[in-house]
Amino acid sequence: MKHVLAVAAASLAASGNAVMAQQVEGATGGNVRGSATAASASIADVASVSPALAAFIHGRLQGEVWQRPQMSARDRSVATVAALIARNQPADMPAQFALALDHGVKPAELSEIILHLAFYTGLGNALAAIPAARQVFVARGVDVAVLPPAGGDRLPLNDAAEAARAAGVQQNFGAVALGVVQYTTDVLFRDLWLRPALAQRDRSLVTVAALVATGQVAQIPYHLNRAMDNGLTQPEASELLTHLAFYAGWPSVFSAMPVFKDVFAKRAG
């Protein structure tokens, strides 16, 4: 149902225009490119309140976690951006959005991540990310013409896989909430997931990271399997948990680990 995505895209654009007047150049000290963690609070600011936290950020997080070879810097940025949006944590968004662009995420891809998470973490969370994204886009001179439109071509649909998914959802939940079942098919899997601005592997990575970050463990098996079908390797999925422990917290990751373990075991068997 392309009309629904068009409305969502228009809503995101309208929100961006509404906050445009609020943008203040230099909100990140004039250097939105420079740090993986500094946003409204610089490392010096953090050190003035918690020297130990500042040392952890500079040393362990930036100097060790982000350098681990099991996951690319681009994938780490995609996962971090997804976690921040999913958890509605805007303070670190300007720096992390800028860092994602430095790591090779395209502005069109960042725009599409925000759209995708409007459906997987709620419209309000997506709208909350608009000011930070616009700030970075303005600072980088990103023209709206390079961002994904509401309409346009869609990727080919895997008819057999989609038919099986839709039949299962209909059988399990058709009598519970037929509207949810219908929109899941029409909006999510026959439109959103077929938008070409974000690769299927990236879209799956964003989804799984958001599910872990928000503790939605019941939804992880389907989407982790889909992510691995879309090219995410088991070592990368494992490292995703390690990375998210620092951005979503240990409890969220430990809640997800039994589910990951079960998916890994069933795929290996």
Automatic annotation (TrEMBL):
Keyword Signal: yes
Domain of life: Bacteria
Keywords on record: Signal
This protein's record includes keyword Signal: yes
Domain named Carboxymuconolactone decarboxylase-like: residues: 51-134, 181-261
InterPro entries per the UniProt record, alphabetical: 4CMD/NDH-1_regulator, AhpD-like, CMD-like
Residues of the signal peptide: 1-20
GO MF, one annotated term: peroxiredoxin activity
PANTHER family reported in the protein's UniProt record: 4-CARBOXYMUCONOLACTONE DECARBOXYLASE FAMILY PROTEIN, BLL4600 PROTEIN
Protein name, UniProt field: 4-carboxymuconolactone decarboxylase
Gene source species: Cupriavidus pauculus
